Amino acid sequence: MADSPTAQELFDELAAEQLERPDVTVGKMLRSDSLQLNGKSFAFVSKERLFAKVPAARVDELVGKGEGENCVLGGRRMREWIVVPATGSPEDRTRWRALIAESAAFVATLTDPARTDEPGDLP
Question: Which residue among 10, 24, 54, 108 is least crowded, i.e. fewest CB within 10 A of its CB?
Fold first, then answer.
């Protein structure tokens, strides 16, 4: 589809929405620009795929429904990261926007300064 944005263009558009929040910044993750909340990455694009940090049970749910893939880096499964390939369809924008928002909300719970327990599986 000629009118479909690339994965990076779509991510940049959706990232701009997140960057309107004062606690969201841009950082680096695996040589890609990533969205960060309180210094923790929660979403980035690499090789036409969206990577988003969500609870492990949510990763399992999305993989089970065929809506994403497990994230494997260096031979290790990153249990709280989902990989969603770009399809080039208009639905990518809706799906990616929702997933990025879900990811930001999840990471907010992990980086909340009021938290007294230690969150698990933080990269």
Answer: 108
